[in-house]
Write a structure and sequence with these properties.
Blueprint (H helix, E strand, L loop, with lengths): L12 E4 L6 E4 L9 H14 L1 E4 L6 H9 L20 E5 L26 E8 L7 E5 H6 L3 H8 L2 E5 L1 H4 L24 E5 L1 E4 L4 E4 L6 E4 L4 H15 L5 E4 L6 E5 L3 E5 L8 E8 L7
Parallel strand pairs: 2-3
Antiparallel strand pairs: 1-2, 3-13, 4-15, 5-13, 5-15, 6-12, 6-14, 7-8, 7-11, 9-10
Bound molecules: fe (ii) ion.
Fe (ii) ion binds next to loops.
């Protein structure tokens, strides 16, 4: 847990986005390095709010990579082509010519939760945004867990969930069918692998438990069939993204948002046909989830 108190945070200004999730941070320029003290304050705000937003950051991929490394190693980026000169950076792009095309990240999910050690955080920097639309929604998985009944929490505390990249990145591509998709996605049989994670994980920085499922990658409970699992997963997926657990980030050119994949799901809106949207994404490596 962070040793800082509210009064200690004197180098940054933190303004919550909602009462439950997210905050904007002012007073930071990411074109240069940050002191250890400032990084500690950002970590404190990140632990408290789980989604942090920095506006008007006129940065290049090198700056974003330096910022990412302040929080850990780079994550591993599978199934999507990365930028030619920056293998740690994905360019998330939907062009104005792509009408009626499925966008990247347009379902509730936690990034790469099918990995053995999914990324702790994702950092997304907006280069080009539509005049309206293309917001990203976030949902608080601490609240999702805390608001379940004691019986459901007790049951889930002892369960593991199989995660897989099969639906979006497998060769049968069940989730999206034959719908056209933006981005260069690599569909492969390797994506059919399943990896078990606890249904509930404890976040070391806060000591709090968060529900760790999502409708894209969490396929079934361990030792159960998909059909047996579906009623409970459907309930949990609906519950976890209730309006009152969410915040919404509206992008401007230069907005940089960092979120905690361990305790937040996100969903990219696809309501800007006819306009281009282009962002740069990096991830911070995480640990194997544990309860
Ligand atoms: Fe995502």
């Amino acid at each position: 847990m962070s040793g800082l108190t509210e009064q200690d945070c004197s180098h940054i200004n933190v303004t919550p986005l909602t009462g439950v999730l997210g905050a904007e941070i002012d007073g930071i320029d990411l074109t240069s390095g940050l002191s250890d003290r400032v990084v500690e304050e950002i970590e404190h705000a990140f632990a408290q709010h789980s989604v942090i937003v920095f506006r008007n950051q006129n940065i290049q991929p090198e700056d974003q990579k330096r910022f990412t490394r302040m929080f850990g190693e780079f994550g591993v980026e599978p199934y999507v082509k990365t930028m030619p000169d920056h293998p740690e950076v994905i360019e998330v792009v939907k062009d104005k010519s792509e009408i009626g095309v499925k966008n990247f990240g347009g379902n509730w999910h936690s990034d790469w939760s099918f990995q053995e050690a999914p990324p702790r955080a994702t950092i997304l920097h907006a280069k080009e945004v539509p005049p309206y639309g293309g917001d990203t929604l976030f949902a608080n998985m601490y609240m999702a867990y805390d608001t379940l009944s004691s019986g459901m929490r007790r049951m889930l505390d002892g369960m593991r969930v199989m995660h897989s990249a099969r639906r979006p990145y497998g060769i049968d591509n069940k989730l999206f069918g034959t719908a056209k998709r933006s981005m260069t996605i690599i569909n492969t049989e390797e994506a059919h692998a399943e990896y078990a994670h606890p249904a509930v994980r404890t976040i070391p920085q806060t000591g709090r438990k968060a529900l760790f499922i999502n409708p894209v990658y969490a396929i079934r409970f361990e030792d159960m069939t998909e059909r047996e699992s579906r009623p409970i997963l459907d309930f949990l997926n609906d519950h976890a993204t209730r309006d009152e657990f969410t915040c919404r980030v509206r992008w401007q050119p230069g907005t940089l948002t960092m979120w905690d994949n361990r305790c937040v799901q996100h969903n990219a809106m696809n309501d800007y046909d006819g306009f281009s949207r282009r962002l740069h994404r990096t991830t911070v490596a995480g640990d194997r989830p544990s309860i």
